[in-house]
């Protein structure tokens, strides 16, 4: 009798194998380049307005307008992309957004406030949806599920570096060449990054998915995006965003308390660096649990990480305290994307990813406003990020029964499985 052959163990997933996959580096680099203005525009606008004689309040309002308009239009652009493809949506969006940013130096900081506000709003409204578009491309580029988990974690972690490199680049350009140069550079990066992605083979050949009629006897419900699980997931992610929104105000308060202005920029940078390192760690971990379970666990760790802020740390300890919760941010966001991939209908995945981005962005804006009201109460301000994360964890834990998959993750872009060969007798 012949012994049954044991299945071969899957080879370990390495960064070299993932990054060496065709198109991966190009798509990552293009997306990060095209989204770099997300970390540049706010700082550029503040420097551009204040150095032109404007007030900090005006500059902050313009920065808020850009961030808010860029967030609220994500689902609309995602839905259009699901219907018409990536090129038809992102190409004109990049041209309009880039032109709007380039129009600001032409108008000048002393120009009409309404005209400046319209240009900033248009730049945000038309910001190309590169992040959600990239998420839709990964299943066709990285077909192995293990490698796909690695690239998604690396992708999420690398996004945080934009908020380290972006402000630094904008500040250097504004200091060396003037604030107009920082806005012009952001305009150019939008075009270069978007063109890099759209001219790649995966983006050019990507087509909106059309679900077969045999997959469901209820065609109207088959394409339904809104569900109890999706609503609860977005609620939890919005609470998670409150933590992120409170970080910047807490950093400014700690800097003022310790009379160390440099902490205002270093603490968010430490958080983003921790997020990137956490992504590298998470990508190498063996994760067998369901995405909803991983989401609850990583969110709980994210909550615990914020507790160090309650100790009122000194300057150097504050850097460690900021980096600690950052280690778990990429884990939570990656699990959130995987959960959405399991919940959303196959024909509307790009739009679903956009709702995740909107939920986090909205919560972040609310957290910033709430933190501003607590600026004079350092203990309450320090507790705000942990409170937001705790609410998110509670939502994720209680909603686990409805966060289970409606379909298999990645099904919308998987390559066809070859038929098994029949054994001859």
Automatic annotation (TrEMBL):
Where are its TM segments located?
181-201, 230-254, 260-283, 295-311, 317-340, 352-372, 378-398
Question: Mind listing the UniProt keywords for this protein, alphabetically?
Answer: Membrane, Transmembrane, Transmembrane helix
Protein name in UniProt: ABC transporter, permease protein
Which species expresses this protein natively? Streptomyces venezuelae (strain ATCC 10712 / CBS 650.69 / DSM 40230 / JCM 4526 / NBRC 13096 / PD 04745)
- The residue ranges flagged as biased composition, category Basic residues, are 408-425
UniProt GO MF annotations:
transmembrane transporter activity
Segments for region (Disordered): 403-425
InterPro entries per record: MFS, MFS_trans_sf
Q: Pfam families, per this entry?
A: MFS_1 (PF07690)
């Amino acid at each position: 009798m012949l012994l049954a052959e044991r299945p071969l163990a899957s080879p370990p997933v390495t960064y070299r194998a993932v990054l060496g996959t065709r198109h991966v580096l190009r798509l990552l680099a293009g997306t990060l380049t095209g989204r770099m203005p997300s970390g540049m525009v706010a700082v550029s606008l503040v420097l551009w307005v204040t150095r032109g004689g404007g007030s900090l309040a005006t500059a902050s309002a313009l920065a808020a307008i850009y961030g808010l308009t860029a967030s609220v239009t994500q689902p609309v652009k995602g839905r259009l992309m699901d219907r018409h493809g990536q090129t038809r949506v992102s190409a004109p969006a990049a041209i309009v957004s880039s032109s709007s940013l380039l129009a600001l130096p032409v108008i000048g900081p002393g120009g009409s406030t309404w005209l400046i506000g319209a240009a900033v709003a248009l730049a945000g409204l038309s910001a190309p949806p590169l992040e959600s578009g990239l998420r839709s491309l990964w299943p066709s580029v990285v077909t192995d599920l293990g490698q796909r988990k690695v690239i998604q974690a690396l992708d999420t972690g690398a996004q945080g570096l934009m908020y380290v490199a972006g402000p630094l680049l904008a500040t250097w350009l504004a200091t060396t060449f003037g604030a107009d140069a920082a806005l012009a550079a952001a305009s150019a990066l939008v075009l270069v990054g978007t063109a890099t992605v759209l001219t790649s083979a995966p983006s050019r050949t990507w087509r909106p998915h059309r679900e077969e009629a045999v997959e469901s006897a209820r065609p109207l419900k088959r394409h339904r995006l809104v569900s109890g699980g999706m609503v609860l997931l977005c609620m939890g992610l919005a609470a998670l965003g409150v933590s992120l929104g409170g970080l910047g105000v807490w950093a400014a308060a700690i800097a003022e308390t310790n009379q160390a202005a440099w902490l205002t920029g270093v603490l968010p940078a430490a958080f983003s660096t921790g997020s990137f390192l956490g992504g590298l760690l998470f990508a190498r971990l063996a994760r067998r649990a369901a995405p909803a379970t991983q989401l609850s666990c990583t969110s709980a760790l994210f909550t615990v990480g914020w507790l160090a802020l309650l100790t009122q740390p000194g300057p150097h300890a504050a850097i460690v305290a900021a980096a600690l919760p950052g280690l778990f941010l990429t884990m939570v966001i990656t699990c959130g994307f995987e959960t959405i991939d399991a919940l959303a209908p196959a024909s509307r995945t790009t739009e679903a990813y956009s709702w995740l981005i909107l939920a986090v962005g909205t919560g972040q804006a609310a957290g910033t406003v709430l933190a501003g009201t607590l600026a004079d109460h350092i203990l309450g301000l320090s507790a705000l990020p942990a409170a937001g994360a705790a609410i998110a964890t509670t939502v994720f834990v209680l909603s686990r029964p409805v966060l289970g998959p409606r379909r298999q993750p990645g099904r919308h872009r998987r390559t066809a499985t070859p038929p098994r060969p029949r054994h001859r007798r």
